[in-house]
Amino acid sequence: MSIRIPQDVLLTSDKEHMNWLRELAKAFNTVKSGSFTWDPPNVGGGATVSTTLTSATIAALAGTTTGMPVHVTPPSTITAGLVVQAWVPANDSLTISLTNVTGGAIDEPSATWAFLGRAL
């Protein structure tokens, strides 16, 4: 990863430079990401199921914070007809909701999922 400093950022002292670097570090420390293996529950036709995962079983979730905006990426093999939503209801946890918009049941196999969140 490379970071470009905008031309209009003028640092006139070592103190300003250090303050700028501290702010930059804080911005990067607010990002939380990881991947995990998950076997979603069976989702009946037209139904929605939600599962809350925690850092007790998925270590990558340690450090997520309540209300953190989060994006979950399902595996590329996810069955068409499933709509994925996710949120962080409490520290060190992640709730994933799957809605089946088809008429038949969908039983997704165990696979690797990923998440990316940023603290507010």
Q: Can you describe this structure in just a few lines?
A:
With 120 residues, the chain is mainly β.
Protein described:
- β4 (82-87) and β5 form a beta hairpin.
- This protein has one domain (32-118).
- The longest helix is centred in the first third of the chain and has 16 residues, at 14-29.
- The mean pLDDT is 84.
- Helix content is 13%, strand content 34%.
- With 120 residues, the chain is mainly β.
Widest beta sheet: strand line-up: 1-6-3
- Compute the CA-based radius of gyration: 19 Å
Mean pLDDT: 84
- Structural class computed from helices and strand pairing: mainly beta
Roughly how much helix do the residues carry, as a percent range? 10-25%
Number of domains: 1
Topology:
Blueprint: H1 14-29, E1 31-38, E2 48-54, E3 70-73, E4 82-87, E5 93-100, E6 111-118
Antiparallel strand pairs: 1-6, 2-5, 3-6, 4-5
